[in-house]
Amino acid sequence: xxxxxxxxxxxxxxxxxxxxxxxxxxxxxxxxxxxxxxxxxxxxxxxxxxxxxxxxxxxxxxxxxxxxxxxxxxxxxxxxxxxxxxxxxxxxxxxxxxxxxxxxxxxxxxxxxxxxxxxxxxxxxxxxxxxxxxxxx
Length: 137
Description:
By secondary structure, the chain is an alpha+beta fold.
């Protein structure tokens, strides 16, 4: 728990009990999770509190949001030192069409793309779809 508290503090987030629990849950899952997943686990918590916690984590660089094509926003923990900047920390995501899980492939970096003059990229998201290693084996 001290490690989680330190990570939150280092990112400018006050480590409340709920924030620690949500961070711990996400770290244990090791996959991207939707707000509804978190709501199901913390059913007695206020939905707004859970949503605000995820948004605070996102604003402070603790999680990043993934659009995996399912029309459900998912969130994954950022690696320590990640700043999720468009020019530096982009990586692939993989969505399994069998088990419906989405994972970050942080070792697989997205190369920088030179856009034509006048174009300004604000976000990038590359999702590969197929069968994950758990489902294919």
